[in-house]
Each structure stands twice: as structure tokens, then as C-alpha cells.
């Protein structure tokens, strides 16, 4: 004999009294069996009680799908007690993914037309919770009629339902435009708040609605002014602020209406100044209103004084004891630093103090803002502060801090010596965390400053003698010792304390680097080449260097072994050429930080002539992967390989300094083309057509970033019609630094044997401002000179 069904209260007590999960499942399974039996019997009097118990079981996470049809029966019932539970069950058990939800559309329509306020409220709540696009289209007219009902209770729920409908079906905007103008005259704050939210949704989704509601800006300004100047109200005031929820929503709407519209912006300027100066800041409600005011001021055509006031409000937020408010202030100031740099600069001391915050998110934001505030006038002071922070900052911030200091020093260095000293301090403090291009940049900087060669090599030698664990520092030091080792022995530098160094000490230090377990393979390569170059810089006996070279001829590291064999051959067979082969690197007088890398790229480009462009099957694989272009396949030809000269091969093997001759004689210059710009990230294309191979087009894609945040994980992929041949070379990096830092370059080689009009499709993927971005676009406006 089955036990009788429990009441809802008894079921709750029994479930809570279960000592194990098995006991709980047993109680629920028994009661679900009773509920199923009751549904099968069709007991109309107790159906709502059984469904109420089933809803409780559903909220505990147990399956309750068998109650969906019972919800429909209760909604269709004329009794209010049944409708109440039925609508609640529909909101919990039904959604757009189930076809059963469409069966209640007619019942909702009937209830909306009944005129009974509690029933209308239930129907509106259900529609705004789980109404699908089809239901919204069918019931939009009924909801529009209820917006002007005399009952505030029904009007408020109808407004919220209209918001849901607009989000689901934006094309319903025209239905709700006329009632909104009348609802703005409401004195009921709940209805007014819902109306402002509805207008905001309409303006965000419909340009026509945006133009329509710009006419009501004076009315919105008056509503907000009344809220600001009204006294304390027990019904609406929160912490001494009159209805902050309504104020915030009005400010958001004003921000949308004033954006890119000067007339609307002028109308609200005085009001925004009044809100900014009269709002209480001792409680969180007032801070919320002030923050929305700041966002509105910054997003519209506001006066310069008003923008300074907004920045000062954010500066006060930095002094708040609440971490969340300080984080919001730092984030907002970072957004404003580009447009209002001088105003944000006034709060630089406070921002620098935030670097010492124990909270990791705050210190990261403070670091980003501090780096954005560096300019030519404060670079010395800010760099000193950042270097102090670099010594004590958490490990996860060291890479960002070190890279930021190096970029700032590169852009705003007052002198080359200061620039070199700054990079050396960063490499000494956090050498393992710097960017990959830091070594090449410092080598280029030192190579181009002839007057600082002696100073630099002595500083680097001293730093290397103290610590050989920082690999980038060791690499630069080894390079400088190899190039300017003779200056190290002369002792002619007057800018630092006298340093007496013997040849044996220098060689012993480089051998120590070679033998250290901390040295990377690349570092050993730098030290090994430096030893070889010292054979021409030092005037003593080279037997020690010869012994080291011969020893590493059997090294397990293939790269190091290859160098040793080549250097040993240079000693034995070409000793008469050794001084010329190992001469000093020529001075680099070009502007730009990537000269060393460009020299390497030019060598690689010279050798790449011997590599044929991939044939059609490889190109087809790339096109199939991107699925960007689907032109007809045509027979493809590839470039005939060139034989590299012996001198070029020897220079490449020894990694020797050289100025390779121009790779090609080019046709007349082709104008550059900007093909992409978004949030400060730009992609420009430059073109070269060699006169020797007119069918070949060399495109250099250059990515620059003028925003306040680095662009990371940058990948550029390209596709061309199958009548062309495309070869993508490796990019110079995958991070585009903020504030106009070092650009990323990538070479595209396109063979166009038929001289057909060129179409190029690009896909960019990157991370910016913490968001992953993917852009696919076609470039079909290339200059005629690229293909004719």
C-alpha cells in the first residue's frame, strides 16, 4: 500500500531531515511517483499543490520535465490559485528550446485582455521571462495597449515586458515609440525607470529611434535636475541620494543621445556639472552616480573644463578606501589618458602610489596607467619610479613592467647614454622577463653610439662579472666584449671609475659563460663568437682561444659544434682572412629600433632566393584552410632559384656583419595603402616590384598600435585567388606595443604571371583590451601599379 502524498511543507521538512543523499533521493523519488499518479488521475483540485511540490524538487536539481503540460493546464484554468502556480511553473520549466512554450501564447493573450490586474501581472512576468521571438511578435500589440493602462502596477510590468521584446525582436521598435513619449511624464519612479530603460534599448538598436528621442533631451535633463535638487524622500532616497538607480539610468541614456551630437551635448553640459558638484560622495550610491556622470562627460561633446572636472573626480576615487572604486578609477583614467593627457598627468603621484597596492589587479592597472603617462618631460622621474617597482613587483607583472620601461626609454630617451643605462638596469634587475627584441635593440643602440663604445663595454663587463644568470644581459655583454674588447683593455674611459682588466680575465669570464649550466644555447653562441672575435682584438697569444675552439668541435650542441668547426677552419686554412672576416660591425646611422633585425631579415631574404615559392598544392592547402577565396584553379609557376654566392654563404654561416647589396632593382615606387584601423591598431601595406621579375610583388605589412594597451597574439593570414602564388614569411613578432611602440612587419611574396587584377583577403586575429578579436576583410583597391 502506497504511503499518502505529503504536503509541500511536510515534503520540505522531510527532505531537509534526510541525513544522507541516498535518503534524500528516496524521499524525492517516492513523492515524484505520487505526483505522477495524481497527474494521471487528473485531479483538478490538487493539481496546483502537486505542481508546487514538483517545482521545489526542480529547484533542488532533480528532473521535473513531466510537469510541463500540467503548467499549461493550470494557466488555462479560470482560478487564480491555479494560474499563479501554472505561470510560475512555466517560467521555471519552459524555455525557447522546447516547443511546448508556444502552446501558452493563446492563454497569455486571453489573460492580458481580461482586465484583471493580478492575472495581467502574472502573464506579463511570464512573457518577459521566457517569451521567444515568435511569442513577442504575436503579443506585441497587447503589450503596447497595456503601456497606457491606468493601473501603475500593470504599466510598470508592461514596460519591462516591452524591454524584453525589443531585445528579442529589435524590429518591433516602431510599435513602442509613441507610448514612450507619454510615459516620460510619469511621476511613478518605477514606471519612469522602466521607460528610461526601454528608450535606452530602442536607441541602441535603432538609428531612427535615436534621432526621435534626441528631441526629448531637455525633458530628460529636467527630470534629472529635479532628482538632484529634490530633498530627502523616504520612498526613493538611498544613503542620502535621491533615487540613484533612476539617476544612473538617465545618465546612461543621455550618454547615448549626446554621443556625436553637439546640440544635445550642449543641452546637458550644465546639468552634468551640477550633478558632479552636488552629489554626495561619502556613500557608494553617490559614487555610482558620479562614475556614470564621468562616463557621460567623456563620451559626449563636453566643454574642456567639464572634462577636467571629470578627471579630478576620478582622481578623488583613487584616494577612496574601497578597492573596487580605485580599480574603476584606474581603468577609467587609462581610457582617458589619450584624449586628456594633461589633466590625467596631475594625478601622476597618486597613480604611482597605487603601484604598491597588494591587490594584483590594482597594481596591474596602476602599472598600465603609469606607463601611459610617461612622456618626454617626466621620463627620468617616471622611469626611476618604475625601476623601483620592478625590483619588488610580483613575478607575473615583471615582464609587463620591464617591457614598458624599455618601450618608454626608446620613445623618450633624452640622451643615448641615459637610454643605455636604463636598459642595462632593466636587464640587470629582470633580464629573464624582457621582450625577445630587447637584446637586438640594445646592440643596435650601442653600435650606433660610437662615443659610448668604451663606456658601454666597461659597464657591461662589470655587470657580467657580478652576475651571469640574466641571459639577455649576458648576450649583450658578450657581443660588446667581442666587438670592443680592445677598448676594454685601454682604460681610456673617463666617465666611470678606472677599471684595470687583463686579457686572461676577459677570456676566463667568457669561458665561464660557456661552461655555466645557466647559459642558454643562444648565449653560448654569443660567447663563443665573442671569443673568436677577441682573437683579432687582443694582441697576445691566441693559443687559449684556439684550444677552446678545438674543444667545442665535438660539442653535443650542433649549432655550437658547427661554429667551432667553421672557426677552426678559419684558423687553419684562412688565417690570412681572419682579421678581415672578424672586423668590427659597421656603424648604423639609420633611424629606427629594428636595424639589427632588419639586417638579419635582409640576409635571410638574400638566401631565400634559393628557395622556390611553394607550388600549387601547398597554396591550395592554405586557401582551403582559410576558405577565403574560391576562384578557378589555374596552372601556377614558381620562381627559378638563384645560386647564392660563396661569400654570402660564409657570411650567413659565421653570422658576420655585412651590408648586402640591393636584392633587386625595383620599378617606380608604388604608394602605400592603409587597409585596416580599429581602436588604435593600424595595418599598412607597402609594395615593391623588382624590375628583374615584373610578375613578382613584394608586400610588407606593417602593424602599428597607438592605443593605450598592447595588442598581443597578433596573427596576420592572407589568401589570394588560385591563379596567383603566395608565400607568407614569418612576422617580426606577435605583440604590437602600445603608444606607437615597435611595429610588427611581415613580408608577402606574390607571383602574378598573368598580370591579373590582384585581390587580397586578410584575416587578423589578436587580443586587445582583454578581448579576443578576429577580422576578415578583402582588399580590392590595390594600386594599379601592383599588377599592371
TrEMBL record:
<dbReference type="GO" id="GO:0030121">
    <property type="term" value="C:AP-1 adaptor complex"/>
</dbReference>
<feature type="domain" description="GAE">
    <location>
        <begin position="668"/>
        <end position="783"/>
    </location>
</feature>
<keyword id="KW-0653">Protein transport</keyword>
<keyword id="KW-0968">Cytoplasmic vesicle</keyword>
<dbReference type="InterPro" id="IPR013041">
    <property type="entry name" value="Clathrin_app_Ig-like_sf"/>
</dbReference>
<keyword id="KW-0813">Transport</keyword>
<dbReference type="InterPro" id="IPR050840">
    <property type="entry name" value="Adaptor_Complx_Large_Subunit"/>
</dbReference>
<dbReference type="Pfam" id="PF02883">
    <property type="entry name" value="Alpha_adaptinC2"/>
</dbReference>
<dbReference type="InterPro" id="IPR011989">
    <property type="entry name" value="ARM-like"/>
</dbReference>
<dbReference type="InterPro" id="IPR016024">
    <property type="entry name" value="ARM-type_fold"/>
</dbReference>
<keyword id="KW-0333">Golgi apparatus</keyword>
<dbReference type="InterPro" id="IPR017107">
    <property type="entry name" value="AP1_complex_gsu"/>
</dbReference>
<dbReference type="GO" id="GO:0016192">
    <property type="term" value="P:vesicle-mediated transport"/>
</dbReference>
<dbReference type="Pfam" id="PF01602">
    <property type="entry name" value="Adaptin_N"/>
</dbReference>
<protein>
    <recommendedName>
        <fullName>AP-1 complex subunit gamma</fullName>
    </recommendedName>
</protein>
<dbReference type="InterPro" id="IPR008152">
    <property type="entry name" value="Clathrin_a/b/g-adaptin_app_Ig"/>
</dbReference>
<keyword id="KW-0472">Membrane</keyword>
<dbReference type="GO" id="GO:0006886">
    <property type="term" value="P:intracellular protein transport"/>
</dbReference>
<dbReference type="InterPro" id="IPR008153">
    <property type="entry name" value="GAE_dom"/>
</dbReference>
<comment type="similarity">
    <text>Belongs to the adaptor complexes large subunit family.</text>
</comment>
<dbReference type="InterPro" id="IPR002553">
    <property type="entry name" value="Clathrin/coatomer_adapt-like_N"/>
</dbReference>
Amino acid at each position: 500500500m502506497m504511503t499518502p502524498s505529503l504536503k509541500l511543507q511536510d515534503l520540505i521538512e522531510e527532505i531537509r531531515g534526510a541525513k544522507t543523499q541516498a535518503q534524500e533521493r528516496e524521499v524525492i523519488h517516492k513523492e515524484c511517483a505520487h505526483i505522477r499518479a495524481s497527474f494521471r488521475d487528473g485531479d483538478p483540485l490538487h493539481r496546483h499543490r502537486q505542481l508546487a511540490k514538483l517545482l521545489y524538487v526542480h529547484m533542488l536539481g532533480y528532473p521535473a520535465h513531466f510537469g510541463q503540460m500540467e503548467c499549461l493546464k493550470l494557466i488555462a484554468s479560470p482560478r487564480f490559485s491555479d494560474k499563479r502556480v501554472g505561470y510560475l511553473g512555466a517560467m521555471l520549466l519552459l524555455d525557447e528550446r522546447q516547443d511546448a512554450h508556444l502552446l501558452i501564447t493563446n492563454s497569455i493573450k486571453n489573460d492580458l485582455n481580461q482586465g484583471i490586474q493580478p492575472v495581467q501581472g502574472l502573464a506579463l512576468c511570464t512573457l518577459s521571462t521566457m517569451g521567444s521571438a515568435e511569442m513577442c511578435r504575436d503579443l506585441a500589440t497587447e503589450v503596447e495597449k497595456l503601456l497606457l493602462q491606468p493601473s501603475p502596477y500593470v504599466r510598470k510590468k508592461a514596460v519591462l515586458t516591452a524591454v524584453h521584446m525589443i531585445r528579442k525582436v529589435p524590429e518591433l521598435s516602431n510599435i513602442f515609440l509613441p507610448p514612450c513619449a507619454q510615459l516620460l511624464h510619469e511621476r511613478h519612479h518605477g514606471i519612469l525607470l522602466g521607460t528610461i530603460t526601454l528608450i535606452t534599448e530602442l536607441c541602441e538598436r535603432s538609428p531612427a529611434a535615436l534621432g526621435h528621442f534626441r528631441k526629448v533631451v531637455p525633458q530628460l535633463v529636467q527630470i534629472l535636475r529635479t532628482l538632484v535638487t529634490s530633498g530627502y524622500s523616504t520612498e526613493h532616497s538611498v544613503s542620502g541620494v535621491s533615487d540613484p538607480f533612476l539617476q544612473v539610468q538617465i545618465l546612461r541614456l543621455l550618454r547615448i543621445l549626446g554621443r556625436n551630437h553637439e546640440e544635445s551635448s550642449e543641452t546637458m553640459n550644465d546639468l552634468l556639472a551640477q550633478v558632479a558638484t552636488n552629489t554626495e560622495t561619502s556613500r557608494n550610491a553617490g559614487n555610482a552616480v558620479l562614475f556614470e556622470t564621468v562616463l557621460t562627460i567623456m563620451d559626449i561633446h563636453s566643454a574642456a573644463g567639464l572634462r577636467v572636472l571629470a578627471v579630478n573626480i576620478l582622481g578623488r576615487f583613487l584616494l577612496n578606501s574601497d578597492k573596487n572604486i580605485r580599480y574603476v578609477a584606474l581603468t577609467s583614467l587609462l581610457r582617458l589618458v589619450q584624449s586628456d593627457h594633461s589633466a590625467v598627468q596631475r594625478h601622476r603621484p597618486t597613480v604611482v602610489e597605487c603601484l604598491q597596492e597588494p591587490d594584483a589587479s590594482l597594481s596591474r592597472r596602476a602599472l598600465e596607467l603609469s606607463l601611459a603617462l610617461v612622456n618626454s618631460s617626466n621620463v627620468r622621474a617616471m622611469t626611476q619610479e618604475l625601476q623601483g617597482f620592478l625590483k619588488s613587483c610580483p613575478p607575473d607583472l615583471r615582464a609587463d613592467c620591464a617591457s614598458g620601461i624599455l618601450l618608454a626609454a626608446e620613445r623618450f630617451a633624452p640622451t643615448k647614454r641615459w637610454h643605455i643605462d636604463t636598459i642595462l638596469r632593466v636587464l640587470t634587475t629582470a633580464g629573464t622577463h624582457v621582450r625577445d627584441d630587447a637584446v637586438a635593440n640594445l646592440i643596435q643602440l650601442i653600435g650606433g653610439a660610437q662615443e659610448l663604445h668604451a663606456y658601454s663595454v666597461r659597464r657591461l663587463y662589470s655587470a657580467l662579472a657580478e652576475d651571469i644568470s640574466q641571459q639577455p644581459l649576458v648576450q649583450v655583454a658578450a657581443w660588446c666584449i667581442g666587438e670592443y674588447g680592445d677598448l676594454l683593455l685601454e682604460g681610456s674611459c673617463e666617465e666611470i671609475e678606472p677599471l684595470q682588466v687583463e686579457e686572461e680575465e676577459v677570456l676566463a669570464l667568457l669561458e665561464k659563460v660557456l661552461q655555466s649550466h645557466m647559459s642558454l644555447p643562444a648565449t653560448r653562441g654569443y660567447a663563443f663568437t665573442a671569443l673568436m672575435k677577441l682573437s683579432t682584438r687582443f694582441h697576445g697569444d691566441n693559443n687559449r682561444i684556439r684550444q677552446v675552439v678545438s674543444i667545442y668541435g665535438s660539442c653535443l650542441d650542433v649549432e655550437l659544434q658547427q661554429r667551432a668547426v667553421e672557426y677552426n677552419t678559419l684558423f687553419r686554412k684562412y688565417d690570412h682572412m681572419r682579421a678581415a672576416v672578424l672586423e668590427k660591425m659597421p656603424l648604423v646611422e639609420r633611424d629606427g629600433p629594428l636595424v639589427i633585425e632588419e639586417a638579419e631579415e635582409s640576409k635571410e631574404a638574400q638566401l631565400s632566393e634559393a628557395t622556390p615559392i611553394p607550388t600549387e598544392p601547398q597554396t591550395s592547402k592554405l586557401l582551403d584552410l582559410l576558405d577565403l577565396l574560391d576562384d578557378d584553379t589555374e596552372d601556377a609557376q614558381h620562381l627559378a632559384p638563384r645560386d647564392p654566392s660563396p661569400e654570402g654563404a660564409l657570411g650567413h654561416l659565421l653570422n658576420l656583419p655585412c651590408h648586402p647589396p640591393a636584392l633587386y632593382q625595383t620599378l617606380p615606387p608604388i604608394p602605400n595603402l592603409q587597409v585596416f584601423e580599429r581602436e588604435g591598431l593600424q595595418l599598412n601595406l607597402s609594395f615593391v616590384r623588382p624590375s628583374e621579375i615584373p610578375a613578382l610583388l613584394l608586400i610588407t605589412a606593417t602593424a602599428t598600435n597607438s592605443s593605450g594597451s598592447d595588442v598581443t597574439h597578433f596573427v596576420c593570414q592572407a589568401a589570394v585567388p588560385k591563379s596567383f602564388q603566395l608565400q607568407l614569411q614569418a612576422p617580426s613578432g606577435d605583440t604590437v606595443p602600445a603608444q606607437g611602440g615597435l611595429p610588427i612587419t611581415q613580408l608577402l611574396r606574390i607571383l602574378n604571371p598573368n598580370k591579373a587584377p590582384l585581390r587580397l583577403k586578410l584575416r587578423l586575429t589578436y587580443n586587445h583590451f582583454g578581448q579576443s578579436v578576429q577580422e576578415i576583410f578583402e582588399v580590392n583597391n590595390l594600386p594599379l601599379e601592383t599588377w599592371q
